[in-house]
Amino acid sequence: MSANPAPPAQEGTAATPPPPTDTPRDETPAGALAFILRNQSFTVIVVALLGALALGAILIRYQGVSPWYAYQTIFHEALFTSGGLARTLTKTSPLILTGLAVVLPLRVGLFNIGGQGQFVLAAAAAGWAGYATRGSGFLALIIGLVVGLLVGAMWASIAALLKTTRGVHEVITTIMLNNIALGIIWWMVTPGGPAAYKNTSQIPMTGPIDDAARMPTIAGLPVAFLVSVALALVCGWMLKKTTLGFQFDTVGKNKFAAGYAGIGISKVILLAMAFAGALAGLAGAMEVHGVMHHFEPAIGGTLGFDGITIALLARSNPVWTIPAAFLVGILRTGAAGLQFATGIAPEIVDLLLAITLLLVSIPVLGKWIFRSRADKVEAAATSWGN
Amino acid sequence: MSEWISRNKMTVGLGAVVLVLAYLYYFADKTTALSMYRYSWSYAVPLVLCAMVGVIGERSGVVNIGIEGQLLVSAFAGFFGAAYSGSLLVGVLAGVGCGLILGGFLAWTTVKWRMDQIIAGVVLNIVATGITSFYYKPGQLLPALMPHVSIPVLSKIPLIGEVFFKGTGVIALLAIVIVIGIHLALFKTRWGLRTRAIGEYPSAADTAGINVIRMRLVNVTLAGALAGLAGVFLSMDSTSSFERGMSAGRGFLALAIMIFGAWRPLRAAAAALFFGFVTAAASQLQADRVINVPPQLVGTLPYVMTLVVLAVAAGKVRAPGAVGQPFVKEGK
């Protein structure tokens, strides 16, 4: 909050000394150290990542596998095998969006844990819509995406409305909505459900969508990836350059000030959550139309929850969700190869990401690295109650 | 006594109505009623214990969103501790110990390091999911069943005795003692007064000479043991197995129950029983084909109920004043 203190109004006295800062007249260090100090939060993230990899190495060692070999396998599998990079980018696209679905509400002080539910419910709806409109060619894709977007936005708006009208905390409501969404999608696709599709594989799913309604790839790049990157940039621009973005940050930093300034807090909260749900929903729809070509309950994996890690890794900066999601995408893609090569369960990634999340979100890490400049280290903050 | 009744007319009246209805149904259809009531209580036990974790935390001014994670890790540690060591006691101790450790972790990060309490809790949950899903091994069995006991005289009481004291697990019995104990401690002892003070108005409590930081640390850490007990109950008593993600949102249901119970232990216990009963009633109606709702949707009932309860209860109850805010001693 004290990142940019407004200069106090002073009456013409040019000789007034500048207000004292928390680091009084330090000798500015040069070179690499200066760079590190200027980019504190970035440094914290790098240290957290390295720390997580180091801790992860110990855990992998305990599984009787050389950590060096394990990490090499992960990165090789995800980046350098044939089709590896394409698979990683395919994995990265929804992660960017579910990351954004956490970032936007975080900027208004809300913690959206509901990305998972918004994602799967929208994916189910998009899959259903895509199958129902089969035969209409490209139009089915548009319909699927729009349906996904709307369902995601609607699902997130429930939490926002409960927050603005009843003051119920969004962490609880979004988690509950995740569980409810799970119930709904299983009901939809199990035999007897409205979207169930009879097939030989015994896996509950919706019917396949037409080839014409699939999302294409352009020069090996999945269109979903391009869309996701573009949306991350748009969100970054929106937060930085537009009035709405300014309102987001004002509400997030100080609700009372925002209220006095005449910003409609409820409206901003509702918009932030609806945008978040729309992004997670779009991710679900694109996963159906671009990757699976049908919907099945396992589609979500942990994509929604990974969004939390990504958002905190990106320090709630939309643009930074791109590299953060790419990193998670690498780990998730590489984990499959790791299991094939060494037998280590792919859940090792859950553990690695959890450790990373732990390290990035503990503000003390920043304090340890920058002892005297602790106050400058900004940590994400939410609010409890109203 | 009469003064107490006149001060709590609503509670007493509601309690009497519920009790009468419960007994009427019991005498009408003894087998079904008993099985439903017993199911309600076994459903409620982990919720009650977790709600106590929330109550102690928030009464001290610390939000505990990480109950879910504490529950999951304790269930995991309890089950695999017992399975590998061949001793139920080791399992119980491992589960409770993990609850304590995670409680301590949450306390330290939020109280000492002043990390955002919500984020700390969510991180704890994600770490819990990561650990338990990576180290999960299928096909393990408990060495024995958890002991179930009947209390001599109490178990003879119709309905109440049969539900709470006849052939019930030790942890379920303990839960009754714990709830009543915490209620008395919170409202009748010096510890309780101080706990409520540091949750309502920490700087005033500090002026009065209470060590706010230390008290919050101790309270939140010790409360973790209750989450541990709940986890042990879940994997060792009510199911005898561990599954990935088996806590299934119970930590959050408990928070809703805490709010529904207005941050009071006994009311929270009543709220948990209500949750248990509605769940039991829904599956009974489903089984009797009275209602025809797909089972997947019936399964979402506790979560829907949480949303409804929170939407209704919010605004009617008041949270402790300083909940969610880190305490910074003046002059530091």
Account of the protein in words:
The complex is a heterodimer of chains A (386) and B (332). Chain A has 386 residues and is mainly alpha-helical. Chain A has a single domain, classed as ABC transporter involved in vitamin B12 uptake, BtuC, CATH 1.10.3470. In chain A, 66% of the residues lie in helices and 1% in strands. Chain A contains 15 helices and two strands. Chain A has helices spanning 31-38, 40-62, 67-80, 84-107, 115-132, 138-166, 170-189, 223-241, 243-253, 255-260, 265-292, 303-313, 321-342, 348-361, 363-369; strands at 217-218, 221-222. In chain A, a hairpin with a 2-residue loop joins β1 (217-218) and β2 (221-222). Chain B is mainly alpha-helical. Chain B has one domain: ABC transporter involved in vitamin B12 uptake, BtuC, CATH 1.10.3470. A two-stranded antiparallel ribbon of chain B has the order 1-2. In chain B, α2 (9-28) packs antiparallel against α3 (30-59). The model of chain B has no long low-confidence stretch (mean pLDDT 88). Chains A and B meet through α6, α7, α12 and α14 of A and α6, α12 and α15 of B.
Pick out its properties.
heterodimer; A: 386 residues; two-stranded antiparallel sheet; globular; B: mainly alpha; 15 helices; 2 strands
Strand order of the largest sheet of chain B: 1-2
Quickly count the helices of chain B: 15
- What is the CATH fold-level name of chain B? ABC transporter involved in vitamin B12 uptake, BtuC
CATH-derived topology of chain A = ABC transporter involved in vitamin B12 uptake, BtuC
* Low-pLDDT segments of chain B: none
Radius of gyration of chain A: 23 Å
Q: Could you spell the SSE succession of chain B in H and E letters?
A: HHHHHHEHEHHHHHHHH
- What's the count of strands of chain B? 2
What is the tally of helical segments of chain A? 15
Percent strand of chain B: under 5%
The global form of chain A is globular
Give the biggest sheet of chain B. Answer: 2 strands, antiparallel
Helix content of chain A: 55-70%
Strand content of chain A: under 5%
* Largest inter-chain contact set: A-B, 50 and 43 residues
CATH class wording of chain B: Mainly Alpha
Q: Separation of termini of chain A?
A: 19 Å
**Integer-rounded radius of gyration of chain B:** 20 Å
Low-confidence stretches of chain A: 1-26, 372-380
Query: Based on helices, strands and strand pairing, what is the structural class of chain B?
Result: mainly alpha
User: Care to count the β-strands of chain A?
Assistant: 2
